[in-house]
Amino acid sequence: MASAATVAKKLPSPGTFSIITKPTFTLADRMKVQRERIRDRQYRKIGLLTTVVMERQLSTKGMSQSKPRFSSPDGAKYCPPGMEPFSAWQANAWVNLTLEWLHYRNASLLAISADRNDLLLPMGLAPLPQIPDPLFVPRAVGEIAPRIAQKLEDRAYGQIRERNGRLWLLFQPLTELCVAIGAGKDSGFGRIRCVTDPADHTHSALLVDPEPDRDGRMEAHFVGGSFQSGF
């Protein structure tokens, strides 16, 4: 995780994938460069980051016994194959593998640096909204799941502390970023795949300072690994 991802020389056209590679910088160097790019507005907007998906080692207890949760006893009869709702285990696992902003209005601006070397969060990372309780099972038609908090510390892989005492939460390895792109009739969603860098074998990661600024946003940096974008 010695350096950050960088982006291919131009944004990909629909249906294509561009490899995002990285130069040789230390972690401190890369974060300094990213801050300078943001400060000087040397970036191009990509879209709004709506979801971060990562890998984690989760307990498999209860997985084999966990069944799809249909809203009615006859639900399985009318459900097409492959469209079954999550089981309780799957729903809980998915929540613990994601940072989810639910809607583009809650999302954070994702950008690419002008030199095509970094993915940036120019406005910081927006606070995570509450999400529907994944373990809630409605008992009557129309029942709405209660909302629960998403806690960054519960989903973090670990922590990094600077010499000055500043704490960063580490999320790795990342597997995918979901992005809302465009506007109006031209709007849609894109995906950025996060992969291991073949040169130095680092994983894609996200560093987040959990202490928000006065606007409630958190400084965050994408570092390490490689990215593939397809919009």
Structure commentary:
- The chain has 231 residues and is mainly beta.
- It has one domain (1-56, 108-136, 145-231).
- 11% of the residues lie in helices and 29% in strands.
- The protein is built from three helices and 14 strands.
- The protein has helices at 27-39, 88-96, 152-155, and strands spanning 18-20, 43-54, 98-100, 108-113, 119-120, 131-132, 147-148, 158-161, 167-171, 174-181, 188-195, 205-208, 220-223, 226-230.
- Strands 1, 2, 3, 4, 5, 10, 11 and 14 form an eight-stranded antiparallel β-sheet that branches.
- A hairpin with a 5-residue loop joins strand 8 (158-161) and strand 9.
- The longest helix is centred in the first third of the chain and has 13 residues, at 27-39.
- The two termini are 26 Å apart.
- The model is unreliable at 1-21 (pLDDT under 50).
What gross morphology would you assign?
globular
* Overall number of domains: 1
Q: How much strand content do the residues show?
A: 25-35%
Residue share in helices?
Answer: 10-25%
Q: Would you report the number of β strands?
A: 14
Quaternary structure of the protein: single chain
Mean pLDDT metric: 80
- First-last Cα distance: 26 Å
Rounded Rg: 19 Å
Number of helices: 3
**Which regions have little confidence, pLDDT < 50, spanning 5+ residues?**
1-21
The biggest beta sheet reads: 8 strands, antiparallel
Helix and strand run: EHEHEEEEEHEEEEEEE
Helix vs. strand class:
mainly beta
